[in-house]
Specification:
The protein is an alpha/beta fold and about 300 residues long. It has helices at about 35-45, 50, 65-75, 90-95, 105-115, 135-150, 165-175, 190-200, 220-230, 240-255, 265-270, 290-295, and strands at about 10-15, 20-25, 55-60, 80-85, 100-105, 125, 155-160, 180-185, 235-240, 280-285.
Length: about 300
Amino acid sequence: MTAGSVAPSPLVRLHVDAPCEVWLKLECLQPIGSFKLRGATNAIRQASPDELRAGVWTTSAGNMAQGVCWVARELAVPATVVAPDHAPRAKLDAVERLGGRAITVPFETWWEAMETGAFPGVDGFFVHPVLDERVMAGNGVIGLELAEQLDDIDAVLVAWGGGGLTTGIASALAAVSPQTRVIGCEPETGAPLAASLAAGRPVAVDYRPSFVDGAGSKALLPAMWERARDLVAGAATVSLADAAAAVRLLATRAHVVAEGAGALAPAAALAGAGGSGRVVCIVSGGNIDPERLATVLAGSVPD
């Protein structure tokens, strides 16, 4: 559990014309601007001193990187991050600000490091950003908080990157609020969850990087498919234009800064993906490059 280390995030109503009652779970207000602090804290604090002797490392586009570096700094151990070369500059700058070392590599190399948990020249305690059960348990605290903060939740919409956030929340809600549906939200530029649920088996898809850097991929990790097919009620695919519009809406109407992945759930809710009842959207992160935010606020979609 992350109690005592990570504060519960606020849950607020979004007053906007929508097919449902929209609530925002503001994980973007965590100290690193992302929910990833929960899983990183839970995983690293359960490691032994011997496991941490050589430091910690992870594979991340930026938010888990910050979570790992935040906890490593608290424990005074070195942290290394292997990141894809499309990772936002704002997130890589935050890694360096927190005292971590970032290694940027092509997407395929990064994906291989995430699958294998190994990278040449990097040692230490590996925190898998998705499949580590301690990470998923830390994420699951969000589900427990929701059950305490709001009654009669019909659906929870969550950005799907690797699946650790979605399945963590779904596991917790299955225990405390089994009537609540959990729906994964992906960008149109990489939506393997939607394709796999439709096919009834893992399916690889074409993937291209976008400003929604914290979600979307070319395929599901095999172990994550085994969890998702029993826990996730469905998937929603969001266009880049709708994701940008949701970032803009959150900034202008709710005064909340969300990154692309953080806006997927609100975008999907506004499109009706959560149904017509009481829908909670996980605003998973707020780490967006200022230039990209300026582009969105000006009415365009960032490259």
